[in-house]
């Protein structure tokens, strides 16, 4: 019997996860479901992510959803997310149902918010799939922490989540400087420690965002997952909108203490980050 695989990608946010989801979804024998991000476990188990909880759909939508499930028809994403969030025991049967379809050997959940999941929650997911004969493999991409933070700030600005009274520089310092309010995403070293607690190294693919789109990394990622490699896909920009202006001079030095442990942890694990991460020299 061919191996059935569930791919769990907990981010990191702003680090290529949309591309990963798109790449996997186009693979032969893959069914990643209807949603770009499932947002189930983070919304249900991490208080800081509770804003991802879906409101109860209108009655007619619930009836349509129940009928579609009964008839095996495609499910609407919003109702599916709500349905799974309401009862976490539905999560694994949903994905094993996808894997039970003819020709399907790969499914998964690419949700950057899962970087905040506890080791206990990760273990629950892993053990639940193992009980159904499904192997969980993880992928975690790591971008230069300060560059990633700047990208997050630009996203906040585009989505009008920042005060118009603050410049980008002022807002960046208010969030990411030592003593700033921070974000709901944990530091890399926290997520890596939790992944290590649950998954052996042969079920972890930890890579740098800066090399994610290279033929070498795409080939290695594909071999790890068990799909045919498509190195040419690295040239396809996915969800690449936004301001790519450089970080203002001197700003990296001001926020670096907030990220120092992440730089230290990742450089020990992936030494190539020393030359690939623009701000690693500050360590």
Automatic annotation (TrEMBL):
Keywords: Transferase. The keyword Transferase applies. GO terms for molecular function: transferase activity. This is Sulfotransferase family protein.
């Amino acid at each position: 019997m061919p191996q059935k695989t569930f791919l769990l990608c907990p981010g990191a946010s702003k680090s290529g996860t949309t591309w990963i989801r798109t790449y996997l979804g186009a693979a032969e024998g893959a069914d990643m479901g209807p949603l770009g991000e499932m947002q189930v476990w983070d919304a249900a188990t991490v208080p800081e992510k509770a804003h991802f909880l879906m409101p109860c759909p209108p009655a007619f939508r619930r009836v349509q959803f129940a009928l579609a499930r009964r008839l095996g028809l495609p499910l609407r994403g919003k109702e599916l997310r709500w349905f799974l969030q309401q009862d976490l025991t539905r999560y694994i049967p949903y994905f094993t149902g996808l894997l039970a379809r003819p020709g399907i050997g790969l499914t998964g959940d690419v949700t950057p918010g899962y970087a905040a999941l506890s080791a206990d929650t990760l273990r629950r997911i892993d053990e639940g799939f193992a009980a159904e004969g499904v192997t969980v493999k993880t992928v975690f991409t790591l971008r230069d922490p300060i560059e990633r933070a700047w990208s997050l700030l630009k996203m906040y600005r585009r989505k009008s989540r920042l005060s118009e009274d603050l410049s980008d520089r002022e807002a960046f310092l208010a969030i990411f400087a030592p003593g700033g309010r921070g974000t709901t995403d944990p530091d890399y070293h926290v997520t890596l420690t939790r992944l290590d607690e649950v998954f052996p190294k042969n079920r972890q693919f930890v890579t740098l965002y800066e090399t994610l789109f290279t033929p070498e990394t795409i080939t290695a990622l594909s071999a790890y997952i068990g799909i045919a490699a498509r190195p040419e896909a690295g040239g396809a920009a996915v969800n690449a909108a936004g301001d790519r202006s450089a970080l203002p001079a001197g700003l990296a030095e001001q926020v670096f203490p907030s990220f120092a442990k992440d730089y230290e942890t990742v450089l020990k694990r992936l030494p190539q980050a020393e030359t690939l991460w623009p701000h690693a020299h500050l360590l």
